[in-house]
Design a protein that fits this description.
The chain is α+β, with helices and mostly antiparallel strands. The protein has two domains: about 200 residues, no CATH class; about 190 residues, no CATH class. Helix content is about 55%, strand content about 20%. The protein is built from 16 helices and twelve strands. Strands 2-3-8-5-7-6 form a six-stranded mixed β-barrel. A two-stranded antiparallel ribbon has the order 11-12. A hairpin with a 5-residue loop joins strand 6 and strand 7. Helix 2 packs antiparallel against helix 14 and helix 3 packs across helix 8.
Length: about 400
């Protein structure tokens, strides 16, 4: 009975109902779109970092993460390679030799992280080969190098130019090697581009005067959903093959990129504050609209009280009106937000005008929003509840009316 009366009251004043519904639609749409955009932005930063360099899982000597020097490299990687090749159905892997050194051209020099890779293996693990903008990816030969556009500009070096890389050898001597620039890359992370160059692992071993040394094994599960299984399996196998003088550690990307993981958690928590701000704004908007509705219907409430309608029923009727409007506005807002996010997740939100700033954050110029079901559920529960809270004060004003005075107000 109360629901029917509340619904008729809503339809009777369509303009007022549309104003309140529109404010709820805008609030829901803005909330969902902002949540999806920020999640897409943060996930893209994390994915780019994983794809260009870190990988999903790494194996190296204990303490290498804190001190990634050549002295902390694995000198006899045979056991690990044998173990990883036995798990080829579950994972792909690549071995690297990494050191800090200097790259020099005829015009300038720069301090860089020199990464020695096996090109064909690295191509299956990371996305560096996809970022080549000039020239070609590393081939099977030695004495080739790929540098970034930022380093090429600093060195004034182009394709085919000769550069020299230098770094300290394990015995303290300085090793150097002349290389030809075969490719120039540009990733979505400008900070990364300024510090990384790639050569074949044979070239780097030759420069450092080492034989089979490996700094890190980068591992990528065949399917991302298998990562917990792969991680658990590798830890057990490593524990089995590690002796007292030959120990290794395995780390997931969460352990290697704690700042990114912390940022993701921070933004998840931050959005509870955003929910609160939008809720407060909606509450005041609902109070304003519903209070106006109560004042316009003072005579109506007086007549209802005079014929015996209790204060409790009037109170519930106003709450039901607000709740129905909240449900309607939430549904419309969620539908619009869903299809907007669906479209943007396919084609991306083009922010090319902010490309330089986004690259400094490690993100591309297109952001692909990510909408989760939990976001929809939270909005579907919170917004109607907020509309009911906002209508409590107007409902209390209504039940405090004196029937005789309310009837005379016409």
């Amino acid at each position: 009975m109360i629901s029917k009366i509340a619904w008729r009251n809503i339809l009777r004043n369509k303009r007022r109902s549309l104003i309140l519904t529109a404010s709820i639609v805008v609030g829901v749409f803005a909330l969902i779109l902002a949540r999806a955009f920020v999640r897409g932005f943060m996930e893209q930063m994390l994915t780019n970092q994983i794809g260009t360099d870190v990988g999903y899982i790494q194996i190296h000597k204990p303490g290498y993460q804190a001190d990634p020097g050549i002295d902390n490299s694995i000198e006899s990687p045979g056991l690990i390679k044998e173990m990883l090749e036995g798990d080829s159905t579950m994972l792909r892997y690549s071995e690297r030799l990494r050191t800090y050194g200097l790259i020099c051209s005829a015009y300038n020099s720069a301090g860089v992280s020199i990464v020695g890779i096996i090109p064909n293996e690295e191509k299956k693990i990371t996305t560096i080969s996809q970022y080549i903008v000039k020239g070609e990816y590393l081939g099977d030969g030695t004495n080739q190098i790929i540098i970034s556009t930022a380093i090429a500009e600093k060195l004034k070096a182009g394709l085919g130019d000769k550069v020299v890389i230098m770094a300290s050898q394990p015995d303290g001597n300085i090793g150097s090697e002349g290389c030809r620039v075969c490719g120039i890359y540009e990733t979505s992370n400008s900070g990364f581009d300024q510090t990384h160059v790639y050569a074949s692992i044979q070239t780097l071993r030759q420069m450092l005067n080492v034989r089979n040394m490996v700094s890190e094994f980068v591992i990528d599960p065949v399917r991302r959903t298998m990562m917990p299984v792969v991680l658990d399996s590798l830890r057990k196998e490593l524990q089995a093959v590690s002796g007292p003088s030959n120990r290794y550690e395995i780390m997931s990307y969460e352990q290697m990129l704690p700042l990114f993981v912390m940022q993701l958690g921070f933004y998840d928590q931050m959005f509870y504050v955003v929910y609160g701000i939008i809720a407060i704004a909606l509450i005041f908007g609902i109070i304003d609209v519903m209070l106006m509705a109560v004042l316009e219907r003072t005579h109506e409430f007086g007549v209802a009280m005079a014929v015996g309608m209790s204060n409790g029923k009037i109170f519930r009727m106003i709450l039901v009106e607000a709740f129905l409007l909240g449900i309607a506005g939430t549904i419309v807002g969620l539908v619009i937000a869903y299809f907007t996010c669906l479209d943007l997740s396919r084609f991306g939100w083009d922010l090319s005008m902010f490309a330089a700033s986004l690259r400094s954050w490690g993100s591309g110029s297109k952001i692909f929003p990510i909408l989760l079901g939990s976001d929809v559920i939270k909005a579907a529960v919170i917004i109607p509840f907020v509309t009911v809270i906002g209508s409590v004060y107007p409902a209390m004003k209504a039940i405090r009316l004196h029937p005789v005075d309310a009837i005379r107000s016409i």
